[in-house]
User: What shape does this take?
Amino acid sequence: MMAVKTAQGSAERSFKLSFEFFPPKSEDMEGQLWQTVDDLAAWQPDFVSVTYGAGGTTKAPTLSTVKRLIAETPLATASHLTCVGASRAEVAEVVEQFRAAGVRHFVALRGDPPTGVGSLYTPHPDGYENAAALVKGLKEIDDFEISVSAYPEKHPESPDLSMDIDMLKRKVDHGATRALTQFFFDNDIFERYLDKVRAAGITIPIVPGIMPILNLTQLKRFAGMCGASVPIWLDARFEGLDGDAGERAKVAAAVASEQIADLRARGIEEFHLYTMNRAPLVNATLEALGCRKAASANDTSTGTLALV
Ligand code: FAD
Assistant: This one.
């Protein structure tokens, strides 16, 4: 039995915030996820989202995680959805299951080929060819709220940034109302990207995806696959800290909070945090920005919400 503490006051924060979780793959990870949800709920995010595995491999864990978030927490919950390897009829079936669970907001994605990022994407013969087609299909099923992806450093498959922005425009034309970006660390890259997006007539919020750095070496490997650059100055920030987890966590929170503060100074007021299902670094990042969690009750008489 766990407990999500319902907020008794308001979280003190002057920008919009969302958290991304992934569905747990083991009992241990399940425990960690719900502890994290319990902890981070007091930030009163505007919404949380749960990722969806390529080829529908984590449809069941995503669905059960989303169901539990909706049924047992006060958090507005979005489900990611990919169309890779699925016919339109299969996507519709999945959407129906999520809708029955109470989902009204999808993060609509094409997904990666089962052979991995960078290999050729082949749509299902009766499926959606890309995320723009998926957004259109979802909007035909119901008037869902739709968020989509955006890539400040372009998607690895895109020949250039303008093709990428064209795809974003098509997603918006079909009804997407928010884009969540791939993570990045150089805010100048984001600002230049945003200028191009606005110049293309796209007016929806482009929400920076912020990745707190749990492990720089692992992050570099992952970033390489996603086409995200890792600036050299990050090496200097983490230099000599391999054996000092405590100090590394402090630097990681400082890096993420400095990035958010700088983006706010450039007029950005909405952020999507990749939590990696762990609370401490997210807490430290938001605390470093001077934010405060909502006061919360510790017992059922004052509003603790049971999570079984
Ligand atoms: P699209 O928007 O359809 O395309 C992405 C880009 O690729 C386009 O901008 C376009 O320029 C280019 N492109 C597409 N097709 C072609 C083509 N035929 N030729 C040339 N260029 C082309 N993956 C998951 O499996 N599950 C998740 O839950 C998940 N969540 C994500 C959340 C966010 C915020 C982000 C940024 C990514 C997420 N991904 C997830 C990863 C995503 O599925 C991959 O990046 C995938 O390769 C592209 O999906 P998309 O929806 O961005 O594709």
